[in-house]
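Re: Re: ligand-bound prediction request (bumping)

Still looking for help on this. To restate: I need the protein modeled with adenosine-5'-triphosphate bound, output as structure tokens. Inputs repeated here so nobody has to scroll up.
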Amino acid sequence: GGDDPLLQVTGLTVTYPNGVTAVRDVDLRCPKGSATLVVGANGAGKTTLLRALTGTLTSEKIATSAELDRYRGETLLRRSPDELTAAGIALVPERTKVFPGLTAAENLDVVPRRIAAGADRFVTRDDVLELLPRLAAVARTDAALLSGGEKQMLAIGRALLTQPRLLVIDELSLGLAPAIVRDLLEKVATIRGEFGVTVLMVEQAVRAALPVADRVVMLRHGAVVADLAADQWTDASEAALIGGGEV
Ligand code: ATP
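Reply:
Sorry for the wait, this slipped through. Here it is.
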């Protein structure tokens, strides 16, 4: 039907070999075109959740997990990162992955070109440079010499060139100045609005990210303790996030 979610996760549990259950019976639904913000204290399980959805947790690390993870009606579990990229899921990782020793332009060129997996709009290199003009300015600079914000832009550009339907972003704001975070979040809004990409993001800078999101999911000790519309986020939500009390 028309309101089928792009991604639906039901009862996802992830337990590491050391016995830590980092994600606990999580339900998550991302309708096509939506932007979901995942928040939680350090160690709440945010990164583990994203990694489980992007194939970057190897299956041997998952002791228990649900059968019902669904992305476009197919199971996500035990699929390789390559398979998930081909299916249209792209991860912008927490610690930016760019190739040092290659220029910014070369970093964009080495993204495997794929036939768009039915994405709304085929994203070209020119589209990326128009969205992120700073990358054109530093095109000939070694990626290792880019600022933190520029590296993050490059990681976003690389992710877009894989033609994602679902862009999964882990801590865009990590170590960046507030003005740069605001700028990057505006780009995320554009990626969603103009490129038609569904967004799932983990972000500590909740207030800055709220305008970009339509839902907020709060994790605590791996479990979802709140799932609300972004415009229902209140000071009490913030207090619960920081203090761990009633949501
Ligand atoms: P942060 O904001 O600090 O990145 P997070 O919400 O992303 O935290 P995770 O990194 O997913 O949380 O960690 C959730 C729990 O799983 C923590 O208790 C952490 O110590 C544990 N954990 C994470 N990675 C591993 C691993 N590879 N092996 C064992 N335990 C792990």
